[in-house]
């Protein structure tokens, strides 16, 4: 999470923030460099082993103190091309993870005996939905961080992670971001020493897939692909090594449901990407490029073919919310 703007007392005390004070955060997307399924759990979820990294594509969330005790959420796409392409209204009630995260944090504050206030939350969307880019989970994590500071709760990172795990499998990852190995449902996070800057292009042709539908079409492998070579590759700082170990077990069932996934992957490889893969449960596909110039060139090629939504970007370091928690 990246702090964009603050308009607060330097050290807000619980219950003493003022109407009009605000925190604005940038919530990044992610891609899966590696995703393997290890087994099916008794709770219906799958045991996963993943390497995820944050990328330079952001939603913006603004949290503004209000005079009453109400939580209000306003959502909009950054521009009409996002809205027209997605053909999807963003919910502004409890169907939205942002709203559920705000409620969960307020409930936690009450258990601690700490006061909260009303807040106006504005979500400006740029990350496509149902793409495997983690936009909703990142927004939820930003909400926990932003409101935790606005309300002066002084929560430790692990406290936020514990709340995040109840909201969704990927939400705990976004509390820290960066490059990490994510296990179990995704909530067990181990940071990876990262020396690897990746220039990438991301594209999505279809409006998205249901994650349960994709998992329903995937069988647990008898011999799972080992994750350690990818962990070592990321630590090495060599994009070519990372490209050699790209893996996503959900690719085959997703491509059956959305054939465009396979088509975009082929287009990226034909254009010269070092590797290309679907992220998460799809339908967004990313390609690893040799440099930023190549990423922009391939993005232009995809746009010229009217693929759908296309962006050239890069991986980003661990997020910088820690000053908020330390205040």
Short summary:
This protein is α+β, with helices and mostly antiparallel strands. The chain contains 12 helices and 12 strands.
Notes on the protein architecture:
- The chain is of the alpha+beta class and 327 residues long.
- The protein is globular, with a radius of gyration of 20 Å.
- The protein folds into two domains: 2-191, Ribosomal Protein S5, domain 2, CATH 3.30.230.10; 199-314, Alpha-Beta Plaits (2-Layer Sandwich), CATH 3.30.70.890.
- A hairpin with a 6-residue loop joins strand 10 and strand 11.
- The model is unreliable at 10-15 (pLDDT under 50).
- Strands 1, 2, 3, 4, 5, 6, 7 and 9 form an eight-stranded mixed β-sheet that branches. Strands 10-11-8-12 form a four-stranded antiparallel β-sheet.
- Helix 2 (97-111) packs parallel to helix 3 (135-150).
- It contains twelve helices and twelve strands.
Strand/helix succession: EEEEHHEHHHEEEHHHEHHEEHEH
Q: In terms of per-residue confidence, which ranges show pLDDT below 50 for 5 or more consecutive residues? A: 10-15
Indicate the percent of residues in helices.
25-40%
Tell me the domain tally. Answer: 2
CATH architecture of the largest domain: 2-Layer Sandwich
Distance between the termini: 16 Å
Tell me, rounded to a whole number, the average pLDDT: 89
Helix/strand/pairing category: alpha+beta
Shape: globular
Provide the β-strand percentage band.
Answer: 25-35%
Strand runs, count: 12
Q: What count of helical segments does DSSP give?
A: 12
Largest sheet: 8 strands, mixed
CATH topology-level fold name of the largest domain? Ribosomal Protein S5, domain 2
């Amino acid at each position: 999470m990246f702090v964009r703007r603050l308009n607060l007392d330097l050290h807000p005390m619980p219950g003493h923030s003022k109407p009009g004070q605000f925190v604005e955060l940038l919530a990044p997307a992610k891609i899966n460099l590696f995703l393997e399924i290890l087994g099916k759990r008794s709770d219906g979820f799958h045991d996963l082993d993943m390497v995820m990294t944050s990328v330079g594509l952001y939603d913006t969330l603004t949290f503004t103190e209000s005079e009453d005790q109400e939580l209000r959420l306003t959502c909009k796409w950054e521009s009409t091309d996002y809205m027209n392409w997605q053909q999807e209204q963003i919910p502004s009630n409890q169907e939205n993870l942002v709203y559920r995260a705000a409620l969960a944090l307020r409930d936690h504050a009450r258990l601690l005996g700490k006061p909260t206030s009303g807040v106006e939350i504005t979500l400006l969307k740029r990350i496509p939905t149902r793409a495997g880019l983690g936009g909703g989970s990142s927004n939820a994590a930003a909400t926990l961080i932003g409101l935790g500071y606005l309300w002066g709760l002084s929560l430790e990172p692990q406290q936020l992670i514990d709340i995040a795990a109840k909201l969704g499998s990927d939400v705990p990852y976004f509390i820290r971001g960066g490059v990490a190995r994510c296990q179990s449902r995704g909530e067990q996070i181990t940071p990876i020493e990262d020396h690897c800057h990746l220039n990438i292009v991301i594209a999505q042709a279809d409006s998205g897939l249901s994650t349960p539908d994709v998992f329903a079409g995937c069988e647990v492998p008898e011999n799972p692909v080992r994750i350690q070579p990818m962990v070592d590759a990321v630590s090495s700082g060599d994009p070519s090594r990372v490209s050699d170990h790209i893996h996503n077990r959900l690719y085959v069932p997703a491509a059956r449901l959305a054939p465009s996934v396979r088509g975009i992957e082929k287009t990226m490889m034909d254009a010269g990407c070092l590797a290309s893969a679907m992220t998460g449960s799809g339908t967004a596909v990313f390609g690893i490029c040799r440099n930023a110039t190549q990423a922009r060139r391939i993005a232009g090629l995809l746009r010229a073919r009217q693929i759908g939504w296309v962006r050239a970007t890069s991986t980003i370091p661990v997020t910088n919310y820690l000053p908020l928690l330390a205040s």
